[in-house]
Amino acid sequence: MEQTILDKLLMIVELFQRDMARAFEGTPLTQARVAVLWIVQTRGPSTQQAIAQALDVSPRNISTLVDVLEGTGYVRRTAHPTDRRAVLVEFTPLAAGVMKKMQRDHTELSDMLLGAVSSADVPALQRGIDAIIAKLAALAPIAEAGEPGPAMAGS
Amino acid sequence: MEQTILDKLLMIVELFQRDMARAFEGTPLTQARVAVLWIVQTRGPSTQQAIAQALDVSPRNISTLVDVLEGTGYVRRTAHPTDRRAVLVEFTPLAAGVMKKMQRDHTELSDMLLGAVSSADVPALQRGIDAIIAKLAALAPIAEAGEPGPAMAGS
DNA sequence: TATTGTTATACTCTATAACTATA
DNA sequence: TATAGTTATAGAGTATAACAATA
Q1: A106–B contact, CB cutoff 8 A
Q2: Do B7 and A151 meet the contact criterion of CB atoms below 8 Å apart?
Q3: Which of B7, B8, B41, B130 to probe by mutation at the A interface, max A CB count within 10 Å?
Q4: Which chain B residue lies closest to A23 (C-alpha atoms)?
Q5: Per-residue pLDDT tens for B83-102?
Q6: Nearest-CA distance A105 → chain B (Å)
Q7: B116–A126: do the CB atoms touch at under 8 Å?
Q8: Which residue of chain A has the CA closest to B148?
Q9: What global pTM score does this model have?
Q10: C-alpha distances out from residue B132 to A96, A121, A129, Å
């Protein structure tokens, strides 16, 4: 039962996502909701259309996600300054704090994982991963591979 | 907007999974259903309980997945030889063929991705990935990280 | 006429709890 | 009493289609 490199990468992400899910326990946050917050963090106040496109998901879907995030105090819907059809989704201080911590945790975890790699191997590892991404992106006409992704550390 | 190593790994898996999803279009297969097939392939005819444990998912969930796989001709439920409460889920020729192709495609894609990496970098890449997995697994008390995973190539 | 966000509806994946048939 | 699988119910995430308000 040889494990291919793809199997290993999948396992890393699976482990990581379990860790992330554990960190959300007891909060109304889920991966999908954090994905929305992530977009707002990287782009600033955004229309739901823009969020839907960034996440490659239907606009209808964003309505529900934002409903929950608004109802639990993470975001506000405010009037768009020039387009009265649209709303701008923007952070409350709660979300700003949570996302700041999430980003810090994510960086720490990433550094810790890289720290587990023999420093002599790090440059080759980085080059190898970049080459794999380039190859995969070339294979699949991915439009845009999306945002960096809603990634964070657990604990 | 620095991309951490974790961001890159997440992007690889995201690209890969989109590719996989595209390959399923027009079939009744989904990631969850393929995960069930994957377990049956690696373990042979299995009880639903065994599948549920292997996938770390509730037994109830497996009922529905197997219902669909059975209804669409991928698996059969057969009597357990010694336990009349249990059923054995086993492949039809259809699933056997599909899984064989899937495994072949997966290996090919994995080889192709590794082939995109400078051969001088491959050993360090492999070591680095293994080190990251070991670190992540040590961080999270994961019970078992699960099967190799239902991974396949698109097209 | 096209776009933004909503209501309506439906499918999939997941969970827990209660029940049936068996161990 | 415990286990295998089911029915019942519910919450998430996703989709398409139709509609209102506005561009």
Answers
A1: yes
A2: yes
A3: B8
A4: B140
A5: 999 999 999 999 999 999 99
A6: 12
A7: no
A8: A7
A9: 0.89
A10: 30, 12, 13
A66 CB below 7 A from strand C atoms: yes
Report the DSSP beta bridge partners of residue A114.
none
Q: Which two tokens stand for residue B112?
A: 């192709």
Interatomic CA distance for residues B146 and B63, integer angstroms: 20
The residues with which A90 forms a beta bridge, in sequence order, are A76
Q: Which amino acid is at B76?
A: R
Two tokens, residue B82: 């010694």
CA of B22 to C1' of C9 (A): 25
Report the residue from A5, A12, A121 with minimal CB separation from B110: A5
Radius of gyration of the CA atoms of chain A, in A: 18
C-alpha pair distances (Å), A97 with each of A73, A94, A101, B90: 12, 5, 6, 50
A51-108 tens-digit pLDDT:
999 999 999 999 999 999 999 999 999 999 999 999 999 999 999 999 999 999 999 9
DSSP B46: B
